[in-house]
Prior knowledge:
The structure holds two protein chains of two kinds. By secondary structure, chain A is an alpha+beta fold.
Amino acid sequence: MADYVFELLLEEIPAWMHDAAQATLQQQFARVMTDLGVTVAPIVNSTPRRLIVYLPELPAGEADRDEEVKGPPVKAAYDAEGKPTPALNGFLKKNAASIDDVIPGGDYIRVRRTVKGRATGEILQQRVPQIFESLRWPKMMRWGAGEHSYIRPIHSIVSTLDGAHLPVTIFGVASGTTTVGHRTLSPRPIEVTSYNDYVTQLELGRVVIDAMRRRHVMAERARVLASQVRGTPAVDASIWSQWQYLTEYPGVVRAEFRPEYLAIPEEVLVTVMRVHQKQLPIRDADGKLTNSFLAVLDNDGDPDGNACYGNAFVTNARFADAKFFYETDRRRPLASRVEQLEHLQFHEKLGNYREKTERIVRIVTAMGGDESAVAAARLSKADLVTEMVKEFTDLQGKIGGIYAREEGQPDDVWQAIYDHYLPVNADDPLPRTVSGAMVSLADRFDTLVGFFSFGAKPTGSKDPFALRRAAQGAVQILLNRDKRCIKIGIDKLIDFAQQAHGGVDVKQDLLQFFAERVRTLLEASQYGFAYDEIAAAMEAGWASSLTDLVDRIAAVKAIRDEANFLSVLDSAKRIENITAGHTSTAVDPSKLEHDAERRLSELATMVGAQIDDMIAEREYRRALESFAALAPELETFFKDVMVMVDDEGVRRNRMSLLRKIGSAVMKIADVTKIVVDRSEYRA
Amino acid sequence: MARLTFQDLILKLQNFWAERGCIIETPLDLEVGAGTMHPATFLRVLGPEPWRVGYAQPSRRPADGRYGDNPFRLGKHYQFQVVLKPSPLEVQDLYLDSLRALGLDLTRHDIRFEEDNWESPTLGAWGVGWQVLLDGMEITQFTYFQQAGGIDLAPISAEITYGCERLTMFLARQASVFDIEWGGGFGYGPVRKQDEYEFSKYYFEVADIGLHWKLLEAYESEAKRCLAEKLVLPAYDWTLKCSHMFNTLDARGAVSVTERVGVIKRVRELAVGCAKQYLERREELGFPLLHGAAAFRPPAGGPKPAAPPETPNG
Lengths: 683, 314
């Protein structure tokens, strides 16, 4: 068994790009392995400067394979006497076959031939450059002569198959068997002979190639350093995936900022450390922020305290600024800034933030927001003209909330201001109050209707105003059912926002846009509904209540695996097919001729009323089951009664009767959209 | 490490880059916000001609002034700017060597290159690169220029911009910029503080708004006239003057959001016009630097782990 070691050495790749690049490489090389008939997975890793691939357990080459080769038509292969023509002889010669090898039958001459599999080395020489040169990075650059475009300039390549150099060339850089150690700690050449040796030699050269190991080392060191000051690191979801790609030789240092800065609101301190400095705050046993923090280090120690000094230096400088902004901002009440918003443009076609504020207030009022919600709406954007937000834009909302709190605004007001940008991402919390949810929705619908009103819809990967995100956040809020739930449909919210924008009409476009967001979110893991379940239920309406939509989807999901679902489905399909294009009228009992149809009509009225009651109580599953119970009667009806009779009055009456039955289920979901595998139901 | 002064830093960087085949230019004698705006960077990165230059550039950012009260912020600071065109593959190692030349033992510090891309809407320019963090502090902007004046560049230039005050403060272990030594026993504070105070007051409170708008107009039309006369270098000077007028008006709070977009666009149009005409003019001249300029060759010996011997300051 052979193995393959590959390393691409380049200049520092942005930390946030590693995970996606690794995933692509993993997938591409898994395909290479599969093609070689290997079942083990490739090992892919990366450091800031290296992309590493290890392919174990490789065979010498592809298996040989048999292949059928098509030759001349049989008609042209033999002459009148049945002797091979030159055409056939030429074909046989070319394929080193004799007349006995010809496969009998068919219109063409065919022979079987064995194709030699290519050697593994040959395959890798072709695939490896292909995979790396076609790797798409979010932001590419050119360098030197400027002829190639990649994430960063490429320096060298290690490519060894079974310990021997396997030459490959990527963007004009030829491979070898030598790499280098850490940029500053051990910048000496390292000769690569085997994978184990590569890992060990690099480790001696102060490079830990395994990102997960770097992460663990740092997490452990962070824990120990924090415990030395009786605290714990305030870890968040993204810290390690960021830190692990900022170092080749993982380390952590602890530093202290001046305790006086603890008087600055905690959110500001955390944002500065976490977002701007990529540092990790430390909290004490009570969860309070301490003036100690942690920083990543591309070195396993800080022998002279330089990194400790440097990190404290920058952080103190940042906090000095923050303190200045905090003190300056608080000299003026938040309310007095609303007027100033006139000078801050929201968008050239949509006016300034003062106008946006007015619209948000109008929408919240139309939603039935109480005094607090309206007060929060009025102050929601005031912090955009504070010094703090000008410097630390990601604090928008939070800072407004904090300033409002410090001015003595009631909880319901300041919390709504604080939360109204939530949720930004799918896993963010929602605003903690109804008022917060209302301001958030009003802000989002104002933005969406505004941009749609002049045609600035997202297209493909282009969404410069983050409208998809705005809509997705609105959907998340509207799906919520706890005490903060908002019982207003997307259709109404669009109406309110359209009125606030002076009566524009973008409703159809926007509903279509939202439908896509709703589908995406309900398919995502938290709900995990299937595409057809969602489509079926949405067909019966969704824009007036998303929680109702979820209930209906859940009912369809619950019943689809039951045996009587086939009855629901078949009945609905039959009704739909037969009544296609029919305009329904009330059923006229005098036109009912057969017993079967009279009975069905009675049942339809009775069961229909029951189903309507159940729907009113959102008992969708029971409603679907009642519908299923009609199946035998329908069966009899279809057997005994001919719908498509010549008498138009009778025909139309029968169709109206069927429609009446079908429409009951269509209020829950268009079940005909459900895809079933009938074999499942046979048992 | 002996206490490093502000001028030691500049002199060492000059000597370091001179030894590596750079021209040492002098600062542009106009008000600019960054060393990038010096024609030795903005215009020289255009076209096929090779170029290697280093220079200090006082950089005026009216809005950053703090009346000399903030120990970290200045309305005018000094950058040391290096441009290497085409970017040599070993440019990061050269840069690290320059830090070693300043007396840093990099095995005892934390050095990281973190993504930081650069874009200048007024210059129609952007690049890709990093901020270099020394022990967690940003000391250098490192950029591979991709476009300037709206023109795609090839070859690509590497631009290295050192923040001289920050680096000196850090190396001299001073907590305030005003406490560093400029040289010869003169303190940076006593030399510069009046300047910081007066210009902060001027830009924020006193600058005549009407006059600056008028000057902006006048400079703009003169820039256009120069372009029409095919005098691209004077045209570029007037473009930079426009940019400074805009920065002053902005610091003075005299530019509304709508106006802002408009003025940036006007300056960019001038910069784009200059870039285009500069390239045409160089072509007419037969791209003089293509002939006779020695190819880039770093001094023999490769990266040196230890600092090279001190070079005399005169």
